[in-house]
Design a protein that fits this description.
Elements (H helix, E strand, L loop, with lengths): L2 H18 L3 E12 L2 E11 L1 H16 L7
Antiparallel strand pairs: 1-2
Helix pairs in contact: 1-2
């Protein structure tokens, strides 16, 4: 498999997952705060909208169907 085909397959798979779940929410660790001897850990929430999944799906399909420049 060529790298182009692998990239297309990954984009299509990720696009389908994002569309199937109507967007994906994930959290990352935020800042830790120490106050009066207590330690608090914060988290940041991120959202990947379904539009990003649709764009990834279309991009993957385009990579599979569009031919590159002919070799010279």
């Amino acid at each position: 498999m060529s790298p182009r085909t692998v990239a297309a397959a990954v984009l299509i798979a990720l696009g389908l997952v994002v569309l199937a779940y109507s967007g994906i929410t994930y959290t990352t660790p935020g800042r830790s705060v120490a106050f009066l001897g207590l330690h608090f850990q914060t988290t940041n929430s991120h959202f990947v909208p379904p539009v990003a999944g649709a764009l990834a799906l279309v991009g993957g399909l385009a990579l599979l169907t569009v031919r590159g420049r002919p070799a010279l």
